[in-house]
UniProtKB/TrEMBL annotation, chain B:
It is a multi-pass membrane protein. GO terms for biological process: protein retention in ER lumen; protein transport; vesicle-mediated transport. This is ER lumen protein-retaining receptor. GO terms for molecular function: ER retention sequence binding. Belongs to the ERD2 family. Keywords: Endoplasmic reticulum, ER-Golgi transport, Membrane, Protein transport, Receptor, Transmembrane, Transmembrane helix, Transport. It holds the Pfam family ER_lumen_recept. GO terms for cellular component: cis-Golgi network; endoplasmic reticulum; endoplasmic reticulum membrane. It is found in: Endoplasmic reticulum membrane. Its main location: endoplasmic reticulum.
Amino acid sequence: SSGVPKHDEL
Amino acid sequence: MNVFRLAGDMTHLLSIIILLLKIRATKSCTGISLKTQELYVIVFLTRYLDLFTKYISFYNTTMKLVFLGTSISIVWYMRYHKVVKQTYNKDQDTFRHYFLAIPCFLLALLIHHEFTVIEVLWTFSIYLEAVAILPQLVLLQRSRNIDNLTGNYVFLLGAYRALYLVNWVYRYFTENHLVRWIPWLSGLVQTTLYADFFYYYIKSWKNNEKLQLPA
């Protein structure tokens, strides 16, 4: 896990 | 997008459609917690701030707008529609919003990925969504009569996050093993809160009886 996860869910 | 995620989104959408159908067709919101519905408006407003800052897909944007629009219209019906608002079980829907919202906000201030407004509010929305069903579950427990639409609404709403859990397991193994503790643990808490309801819902369905939760 690196950096901020992109929020691609709802 | 995998099939579990899509099934989760569709279950979520279907639950909202069923609730709107109940309200519009029967002109009644009996058994529905306005507290929970208002919390969902806050959840969607704080989570979907990125509508203005980043584009993911047409699907994503459309669904976000649908969730925002439908949740706001449900609250509007329950608060302002002159027939529907009279069917609201105000005396039984006594859960306090801030008992849930304030701890979730403090937790989001403490535990988040990045200390920015959008990221903290996104995290807050994940924590709040996990517990937003509580006023609804309390109201159901107090209701002697749970109609089918309300029962199905709550069942589908719970099933949606359970499907997301499967989606996260699937994504972990198919997409470079990304660990995302905040939504995973919150989603697990959210689904666990429904365990009792699921048990009685399935039991009543198997025995072909009316759904009733023990007090």
